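Following the same procedure, backbone shapes were mapped to integers, as reproduced here:
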Amino acid sequence: MEESTIQEVVSSQSEPAGAILVGILLSGESFEKLKEDLDELESLLDTLGVRVHGRIVQKRHRLTAKTLLGTGKVDEIKELAESYNADWVVFDRALSPPQVRNLEEMTCKSVMDRTGVILEIFSKHARTNQAKTQVEIARLEYLLPRLTGAWTHFQRQAGGGVRSRGMGEKQIEIDRRRARERIAKLQKQLDQIRKEKQTQRKARSQELKVAIVGYTNSGKTTLMKSLTRATVAGKNELFATLDTNIKAIDPRTRPKILLSDTVGFIRNLPHSLVESFKSTLDEVREADLLLHVVDVSYHSYEDHIRITRQVLEEIGAGDVPQLMVFNKSDLLDDPILPRVLKAAYPGSQTLSANSPEEVNQLRDHIYGFFRKNLVSYSVAIDISEQTALSKVYNNCLILKTDYDETGKMVFYVQSTRATMAKLRKYIVELEDDESSEEKSMEPDYVTD
């Protein structure tokens, strides 16, 4: 039986590829929760262009080491897959390499688990060199232990190849070595990319940074497009965005506020992907504010909130200030829910990313968050000191401009403490807290 990726099967067939979903309900687990997991798995497969022909669920007191399921249920899966001529049997639970091998032998179908499907989607949507490198590392690490009993020549970039059983341990060890060598080479490439990205982030260190985070397909990219008036295309599919997009919320703001859209989260996100994408998620860890976007039209949105917060903790961004943004309010049937959310999540915003008026309110809310933390002071700078003047014009909100008796330009400004530190030698007056608060409320955050 040939080993091929879902993408290869889909692209080689005139008819849509098909799959049978398999779920296992253990004692004490909720059937409703399992149904949600299978619904999400079906959405993942739909993103890959795979049609789900049917589902099979078995209740069990414990999982079996050989196949997770009982042999009778495996026979039922085989019959259902054959009746629909399905290409794949996809399990919602993680499968060990021996379990995959046993199930493929018993069903005569290709078998994949949830992790493998997510990796396929990440591979499909990777566009930049960084994303492609990260995904390939994760896929090779996923495939490496699955070489037992099957040998694979890593001729394709994603680690695909031809499976042939009974070729002997020598070929298996050769391919394991090739996989490890490829991973080591890719890791060096990724380390170099990380250094370059770190240099780019350092150049943006004076700007204020906002990162959009949330469960996949919650409308993050659409919200970014609306907030920045950018041409970033939002898609109604899972993991449409893998590469970090960075735009200024408004080019006229001083200090500049940068907004980044990052990869979406999902339950049971493979650990290898979290590790590989940590460099991409540096934008989240180093942000001054997180916009935690939630699809409020989804009935179990609180579960999405919990999962997103878990991932944020895992990547070291749990302490970054968050603004809850409940998106897709235009799809709500319950008119009372926005008021309930406001009470349950103080300071949160409920909106539709497609409503310009509501997005403007969110933008003002972001400005207000940063405005409260700006420092008011005045600096006197000689017109010959272009570097210092550039810092004022590019990184400060200028409230007033004047000249002193020596001809120096005097700027009454508000900025971050980081910018103030760079202009420290030019400071002639630092406002007290009361006057700072009064001044910060007078000018609009956006200046012409």
